[in-house]
Amino acid sequence: MSNGSTFPPPRRPRGAIVLVVLAAVLVAAGAGYLVLRSLRGGGGAPPGAAHPAPSASAGDGNRPDKKDGKGDGSQDSGSGAHSGKGNPHGSLKGKTVLIDPGHNTRNHNHVREIARLVNIGNERKECDTTGTSTDAGYAEASFTLDVARRARTILQHQGAKVVFTQDGDRPFGPCVDERAAAGNKAHADAAISIHADGSAVGNRGFHVILPARVTAGAADTSAIVAPSRQLGERVAGRFVAVTGSAPSNYIGGGTGLDVRSDLGGLNLSTVPKVFIECGNMRDPKDAAHLTDAAWRQNAARGISEGITDFLTS
Length: 313
Ligand SMILES: [Zn+2]
Fold this sequence. Notes:
This protein is of the alpha/beta class. The chain has helices spanning about 10-40, 50-60, 65-70, 70-80, 110-115, 140-155, 175-185, 225-245, 265, 285-290, 295-310; strands at about 95-100, 115-120, 125, 160-165, 190-195, 205-210, 215, 220, 255-260, 275-280. The protein folds into two domains: about 5-80, no CATH class; about 95-310, Aminopeptidase (3-Layer(aba) Sandwich).
């Protein structure tokens, strides 16, 4: 069961696009005189008479499709704002996205190295951890890298530059402070760390973790708290819509959102950043999703669309 009401409604410009498309369809169908009469103020139709249609359709939560994108150029020139709506190819040109695949498939061979403590501003924590796995042994680190690569393909197709913290190309880590630094160094417009949880059986669903306001030592998240929440809300909203997964039933009170001050990857970030725990690897029902490649593709799509929404708003 999805709790869509906790997420931001589709943005108005999409409704405006629907309005334009609807008007065009009406004209093509030979009903143009109705529209013209309305525009001239004739027939007693109030100026806002055509507005209920788009608001009704906006409520269905449909994702933007290719058809929306095709018409974007001319429609945007009419409305004069919010170019890039409808996710046309190239809408993320000039944008940089940092993707952090959580953990590392080889961390378990480097227990001593990843146990080294690093400073995350308000405390010292392990450099990195091995992550969890399903009962059948599918590692969280394999999951995070797979979803990250799928999301990279989608975002690159949209024109974004995508930077990874690790791509299965190093023996362990990187440490959590380095993972944050990678996004900062790339001047990422948005950053996301991909994970899956290891909780009790029966605990199900995804949640997005937002940075708390932390100002301690090298950590100062005051500038990223607000934009990170916007990013997180959009990712959560699109994740629900695309995967059909419900927000976590054990964290976040049904909102799919959590706020934490104990994650180095968030504390040390100077760019908008969130974590997503895509599901609970220890729950058999969630694990069935997490181990399914088709579901992971949808997860990557939900994440990518949330990022795209954030970057084109
Ligand atoms: Zn993790």
